[in-house]
Specification:
The protein has helices at residues 2-19, 22-44, 49-68, 72-94, 100-105, 113-140, 143-152, 155-169, 175-180. The protein is mostly helical and 190 residues long. It is globular and about 50 Å long. The relative contact order is 0.09.
Length: 190
């Protein structure tokens, strides 16, 4: 259900673009993202930082697109979002010496320090890659081609998330192991 909820605004954006234009699609995207955020808040009682950032950027860049009647703003919103994420991960890792991914996921996933470092670098590079790719498509291709890229471009994040999941899967404690081992017991050898 989470994936369907995540795809809800972009699918409506795509449909609105196909039936109208980029400006109608932008208005639909803004409304759909507000609805999505309210729904997520109702389900979880809070909004994740990423959801707040996405909502804010869509509302700001969407408003600029509509008020200035300039499609470049909505087309470059993903570049700004990915660029800021990549920069945030980079600064967190190398300036503040904090691993943001470990801070966010450390309670659910037990990874050695070197694996957290690898994940942080991989996510940083992924974010910069996606920022550059979106900028390239937004500059070099038509708006219709950019909209199509936004739909089919979801392959990149899905593949990256699956790859990350595979990488960390062996480090997620299984429920069986947690329930079969009591404090003071020696866990069975594999």
């Amino acid at each position: 259900m989470k994936i369907a909820l995540d795809l809800f605004p972009i699918l409506l954006f795509f449909g609105a673009y196909k039936f109208a234009d980029i400006y109608a699609a932008t208005a639909v995207l803004m409304a759909a993202t507000v609805i999505q955020s309210l729904w997520m808040y109702k389900l979880e009682g809070k909004l994740a930082t990423m959801q707040k950032a996405t909502l804010g950027l869509i509302l700001v860049f969407g408003s600029l697109t509509l008020f200035l009647h300039d499609e470049r703003f909505i087309k470059f919103k993903p570049t700004l979002l990915y660029g800021c994420l990549g920069l945030g991960l980079l600064v967190s890792q190398f300036v503040f010496k904090k691993n943001f991914l470990k801070t966010m996921l450390g309670a659910q996933v037990n990874l050695p320090h070197a694996n957290w470092q690898t994940l942080s670098v991989a996510w940083t590079m992924y974010c910069f890659f996606m920022a550059a790719l979106n900028a390239y498509v937004a500059i070099e291709f038509t708006t219709e081609e950019w909209v199509n890229f936004k739909i089919w471009g979801y392959v990149f994040p899905l593949m990256f998330i699956v790859g990350t999941g595979i990488y960390i899967a062996k480090h997620i404690p299984s429920e069986e192991a947690e329930t079969s081992v009591k404090p003071g017991d020696t866990p069975p050898s594999p």
